[in-house]
């Protein structure tokens, strides 16, 4: 299992998307699964709707990072069938600034942002990690992106 959990924006002049072909080739050649931790911004806000980062409310300072992660996902989807991969997007509110409390339960979605009855999309770090490890131990999302939220 290759786990990739790194920013997609340029770091020292290099972007994650530039490494995807090599990572995919190495994973394929070695028969291992490739996994990416992405962001929520490339999720659709509703079925058939725009991606979160394409909405007017999305902060401009995060668009480059979001677009880069969307590019990584797009490139993964173009890979030959011989590559087993998954890409997991957290809820819109996720990170050290919103740690949340471990609940031990969450909902899994696909390409559409998962929200609660109040329209909030959030997940705590512990529960996000549980969902990620669950996918590693008991794969359910082969060659697909999924999202995790309360």
TrEMBL record:
InterPro entries: NAD(P)-bd_dom_sf, Polyketide_Oxido-like
Gene Ontology molecular functions: oxidoreductase activity, acting on the CH-NH group of donors, NAD or NADP as acceptor
Gene3D superfamilies (alphabetical): NAD(P)-binding Rossmann-like Domain (3.40.50.720)
Name used for this protein in its record: NAD-dependent epimerase
Native species: Amycolatopsis mongoliensis
The organism's taxonomic lineage, starting at the top: Bacteria, Bacillati, Actinomycetota, Actinomycetes, Pseudonocardiales
């Amino acid at each position: 299992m290759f786990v990739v959990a790194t920013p997609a924006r340029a770091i020292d002049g290099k972007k994650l998307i530039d490494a995807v072909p090599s990572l995919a080739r190495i994973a394929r050649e070695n028969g291992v699964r490739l996994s990416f931790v992405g962001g929520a911004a490339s999720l659709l806000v509703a079925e058939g709707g725009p991606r979160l980062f394409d909405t007017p409310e999305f902060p401009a300072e995060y668009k480059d990072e979001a677009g880069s992660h969307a590019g990584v996902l797009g490139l993964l989807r173009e890979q030959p069938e011989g590559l087993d991969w998954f890409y997991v997007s957290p809820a819109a509110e996720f990170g050290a600034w919103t740690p949340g409390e471990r609940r031990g339960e969450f909902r899994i979605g696909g390409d559409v942002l998962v929200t609660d009855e109040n329209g909030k999309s959030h997940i705590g770090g512990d529960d996000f990690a549980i969902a990620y490890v669950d996918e590693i131990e008991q794969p359910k999302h082969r060659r697909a992106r999924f999202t995790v939220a309360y």
